């Protein structure tokens, strides 16, 4: 379907465009994202989304003929994949179109993320130039990070990374829809997504499922499951999961120019809207007078009170929080006597801002431990951390008996956050936590019989790595049944859930 506005725009472009002139085929309000060669790397190549990119010239007849189908494909794929177009007639884009090996117009390429971040797999689309065929081809290339579970494997999945949020879709379908795959990509690293069939009666009973599709959010830990009551459409489902954490941006935000800054990068790219296939002008650099802020840093606006983390000076506090044999992961900054030293204040500020940023996703607790804490010296010497006048940043998990040391050059938030992320992903080497630092007898929390805890650490590491979102994202789509055999249902979305 073409809107009246689109017809008017098309008519205008027919009247105005002459060969050689850089007139775009797709207007500002089109569902097709008009990109330049300069945007490609950020908007397409570095996105976790799968994209289709049309390379065209405005004067080319086949390009004009493709336009309605391409617009319609873009509408169907909204929120699921990106549909973009590059005007190769524009002088600015000519070198890029050349680099991409474009020899005729229109050329369509499907671009999807590979194992190497920012180095996508690019393939020519040579199927029919019809909306349905395009939609189907793009959907088939969307990487799958959704886990299929059954009555037998449900418990295992529920217990994996128990404290982080999960979402599970009950469906009568065995196939995982493109919508759910896209939802899992939006929340990669934030919410683990699974699908289970309603013929799995034990699970259906356990959750009291009355109809399919039903989407349930498990916020983590011991919190009660939440049932999605809204529409089974991408946007509504994104909003539903956003109560745990805002979705990932659909691509990295634009780099700020040297003298200028991009607009408020906190709000726009992370809003649920950003997960739609539209990379609208809101993602383009916008002139602003605010100082330059790198996306990965955690801005602490001056008006807000600075976030802080608890500093433990009592033996019992440290034991109760982190060093008893039931204690889960803790991040601990061992502080020097002089807590006002630059290293100490930087480390505490970085930890506080990182904790605040990830609070919604139930990140493990962060503590400072003052030098006055009677356990500080023994811990530093037992773990051979080094000087008592330095800051030592460690992570411990006394329950599982491991610890990790931060060995970065500085305590700035970006480096520390990367280390924290690695811990969350189960990456990096774990050292064995000496039994001597773990309290057992007077453990403050009751100890439960959980067979998993008895397993050697090695197994835990493998389990976690296996489900690292980046790893699974990197693998080929894992759909067991051939996606091609499925009838394409362009609308409504929920029929494929
Ligand atoms: C996480 O584990 C706790 C205790 O082991 C359990 O009560 C809770 O139901 C689990 N949460 C999820 C989401 O599985
Ligand atoms: C891509 O996904 C990963 C997690 O799988 C996430 O950490 C990252 O922010 C995403 N990238 C973008 C640009 O959203």
From TrEMBL:
<protein>
    <recommendedName>
        <fullName>protein disulfide-isomerase</fullName>
        <ecNumber>5.3.4.1</ecNumber>
    </recommendedName>
</protein>
<feature type="signal peptide">
    <location>
        <begin position="1"/>
        <end position="22"/>
    </location>
</feature>
<keyword id="KW-0413">Isomerase</keyword>
<dbReference type="GO" id="GO:0005788">
    <property type="term" value="C:endoplasmic reticulum lumen"/>
</dbReference>
<feature type="region of interest" description="Disordered">
    <location>
        <begin position="243"/>
        <end position="313"/>
    </location>
</feature>
<dbReference type="Pfam" id="PF00085">
    <property type="entry name" value="Thioredoxin"/>
</dbReference>
<dbReference type="GO" id="GO:0015035">
    <property type="term" value="F:protein-disulfide reductase activity"/>
</dbReference>
<dbReference type="InterPro" id="IPR036249">
    <property type="entry name" value="Thioredoxin-like_sf"/>
</dbReference>
<dbReference type="InterPro" id="IPR017937">
    <property type="entry name" value="Thioredoxin_CS"/>
</dbReference>
<feature type="compositionally biased region" description="Basic and acidic residues">
    <location>
        <begin position="477"/>
        <end position="497"/>
    </location>
</feature>
<dbReference type="Pfam" id="PF24541">
    <property type="entry name" value="Thioredox_PDIA6_C"/>
</dbReference>
<feature type="domain" description="Thioredoxin">
    <location>
        <begin position="3"/>
        <end position="143"/>
    </location>
</feature>
<keyword id="KW-0732">Signal</keyword>
<dbReference type="InterPro" id="IPR057305">
    <property type="entry name" value="Thioredox_PDIA6_C"/>
</dbReference>
<feature type="compositionally biased region" description="Low complexity">
    <location>
        <begin position="269"/>
        <end position="291"/>
    </location>
</feature>
<dbReference type="GO" id="GO:0003756">
    <property type="term" value="F:protein disulfide isomerase activity"/>
</dbReference>
<dbReference type="GO" id="GO:0034976">
    <property type="term" value="P:response to endoplasmic reticulum stress"/>
</dbReference>
<dbReference type="InterPro" id="IPR013766">
    <property type="entry name" value="Thioredoxin_domain"/>
</dbReference>
<keyword id="KW-0676">Redox-active center</keyword>
<keyword id="KW-1015">Disulfide bond</keyword>
<feature type="compositionally biased region" description="Acidic residues">
    <location>
        <begin position="460"/>
        <end position="470"/>
    </location>
</feature>
<feature type="region of interest" description="Disordered">
    <location>
        <begin position="430"/>
        <end position="497"/>
    </location>
</feature>
